[in-house]
From TrEMBL, chain A:
Protein name (database record): Uncharacterized protein
Keywords assigned by UniProt, alphabetized: Membrane, Transmembrane, Transmembrane helix
Organism: Ruminiclostridium papyrosolvens C7
UniProt KW Transmembrane keyword: yes
Organism lineage: Bacteria, Bacillati, Bacillota, Clostridia, Eubacteriales
Transmembrane segments: 20-37, 43-62, 83-109, 129-151, 163-182, 210-231
Automatic annotation (TrEMBL), chain B:
Keyword set, alphabetical order: ATP-binding, Nucleotide-binding, Transport
Species classification: Bacteria, Bacillati, Bacillota, Clostridia, Eubacteriales
Top-level division of the source organism's lineage: Bacteria
Protein name: Multidrug ABC transporter ATP-binding protein
One Gene Ontology molecular-function label: ATP hydrolysis activity
CDD domains per record: ABC_DR_subfamily_A
ATP-binding recorded as keyword: yes
InterPro entries noted in UniProt: AAA+_ATPase, ABC_transporter-like_ATP-bd, ABC_Transporter_VariousFunc, P-loop_NTPase
Pfam families in the cross-refs: ABC_tran
Keyword presence, Nucleotide-binding: yes
UniProt source species: Ruminiclostridium papyrosolvens C7
């Protein structure tokens, strides 16, 4: 009973942001399609915008809801389940909306879906609507779970840990990793990693987009397991 | 029958022991006063009862069920915390509606009635409420929930004298109409003394007293009369404190009173709970 109510609450918190997001998307599309002349411009991949939006939603889905639900005596385990109960319909709904909007935008402007751009070669053979939908759903679920995990991890960290992660992660990706690649990795190794990632996400290789679906799903499961471990003993913090 | 049992609870924050081996039984339909000086561990205990934090040792049972991650046990408790954890953009009415979803016995009509009495607007956003009105908002939620255990942490924080008076009246009215176990954690002992039945005193994380107010008050007495008469009578006795107005003095004495030995012109009354509290927690 409380699980249903808690997920209803989280869903209601996300709902308005989703509506505003699509309103902006539609307005932007109308603006660009009317402002640019036919043939010389294109508009691609709202899936990436949706994924980024859901990542931000995930980032905003913990603290406020956690404190409110704790005030109403909802245990952490129930809160964790209710987040996913609310997130799944949101991601499914957004994947369906994006698919529908893609079809509409295609008629009014030069529009390509991100899925179409990435898996162009395979779309004819394997990429039917269901796979494309599944790809979007798992991508969105992975994005919202990543946001949820990051905000939860920050909530559990103390001040020093927060500073270390906030500085350490960007420094690693912008300075340490490029330095390692430039100085210690051969072109063969870099190509091997690049090809591995491309195959994993089905851009190259024989598995196609279904491979990316599996990767997103595994990432979502891993992130949710880590999130559960973090929320399980999360205390209510005063500030 | 609702009963809460706190068994050997210890809570440590790093190397600081906030609570040490606390054991208590909270009986059904009683009003408890949870008293202690700043940092004594009152809020920590209330946070542990509602599983907002986890104990280092021990357990808290509601009707025999451990409260930790227990939906059923936690649904029987409402905690009015000192801090506000409701979303700031939420209106008072929306907060009531959501609380009703979580606590199905929440009385919306009663909540609206209390809002009118305290002049709290239903369409007001929580972030626009003053400190006093935030306390009123949380207190209305707590009184309207109709759960077996209501925990109030500093319920009159920021309330003016009129609202405090109204709050105590409404609390008693609510308790007499729908009895429940209420724990009030407060520093305003004099005001709460008239409504609490049992007093729990925590000092530096340790439970030093868990008795009925009646029994605590019987440990001492107040004696009033002319300054010289009071001084004469209390000489050699354990005096907790004294108030003097003009030529009249009221002394608070700890110890048993032999009524036969009271000189004429002196009046004996119940001692002040606050004076006893100060004496107990200063030792």
């Amino acid at each position: 009973m409380r699980l249903k109510t808690a997920s209803k609450y989280i869903f209601s918190e996300i709902k308005n942001s989703v509506l505003i997001f699509y309103l902006i998307i539609v307005l932007l599309t109308i603006f660009f399609s009317s402002a640019t002349s036919e043939g010389n411009s294109s508009f691609n991949g709202i899936e990436m915008m949706s994924a980024i939006f859901l990542f931000v939603v995930g980032l905003n889905s913990f603290r406020k809801n956690y404190l409110f639900l704790m005030s109403n005596g909802v245990p952490r385990r129930t809160q964790f389940k209710s987040f996913f109960l609310a997130a799944i319909p949101v991601t499914v709904g957004m994947a369906v909306i994006d698919l529908a909007l893609g079809a509409i935008f295609n008629r009014i402007t030069n529009y390509n879906t991100l899925y179409g751009l990435l898996y162009q070669d395979k779309t004819q053979s394997t990429g039917n609507i269901i796979i494309s939908l599944l790809w979007s759903i798992t991508l969105y679920l992975c994005a919202i779970t990543l946001g949820y995990f990051i905000t939860l991890a920050y909530y559990r960290m103390n001040k020093i840990q927060k500073i270390c992660v906030s500085i350490g992660v960007p420094v690693f990706f912008t300075m340490v990793l490029p330095y390692i690649i430039y100085n210690f990795c051969s072109t063969t190794t870099v190509n091997w990693v690049y090809n591995g990632i491309s195959t994993m996400f089905g851009v190259t290789g024989s598995y196609g987009s279904i491979s990316a679906v599996a990767v997103f799903l595994v990432c979502t499961i891993l992130l949710s397991v880590l999130s559960y471990l973090l929320i399980r003993k999360a205390p209510v913090k005063e500030n | 029958m609702s009963q809460m049992e706190i068994k050997n609870i210890t809570k440590k924050f790093a190397d600081v022991t906030a609570l040490e081996n606390i054991s208590l039984k909270l009986e059904e339909n009683k009003i408890y006063g949870l008293l202690g000086r700043n940092g004594a561990g009152k809020t920590t205990l209330l946070n542990l009862i509602t599983n907002r934090i986890f104990p280092t040792e021990g357990e808290i049972l509601v009707n025999g069920e451990n409260v930790i991650e227990n939906d059923n046990a936690l649904s029987k408790i409402y905690f009015m915390a000192e801090n506000n954890y409701y979303p700031e953009n939420m209106t008072v009415k929306k907060a009531f509606n959501w609380t009703k979803e979580f606590y199905t016995d929440f009385d919306s009509e009663y909540a609206a009635e209390l809002c009118e009495k305290f002049s709290l607007k239903l369409n007001q956003k929580i972030k626009t409420l003053s400190t006093g009105y935030t306390s009123i908002f949380k207190m209305i939620l707590a009184l309207s929930c109709n759960v077996p255990f209501v925990l109030l942490d500093e319920p009159v924080l920021g309330l003016d004298a009129n609202h405090r008076d109204l709050f105590y009246k409404e609390l008693l009215k609510n308790y007499s109409e729908k009895p429940k176990t209420i724990i009030i954690s407060t520093h305003l002992i004099e005001e709460a003394a008239d409504i609490i039945e049992d007093v729990i005193i925590i000092k530096s994380g340790k439970l030093i007293l868990n008795e009925s107010v009646e029994s605590v008050l019987s440990q001492g007495y107040a004696i009033t009369g002319s300054i010289s008469a009071v001084d004469g009578f209390t000489a050699g006795k354990n005096i907790l404190g004294a108030d003097t107005i003009g030529g009249i003095k009221c002394a608070y004495v700890l110890g048993h009173l032999d009524k036969a030995g009271i000189p004429d012109g002196l009046e004996v009354t119940k001692p002040d709970l606050q004076k006893l509290f100060i004496h107990m927690t200063n030792r």
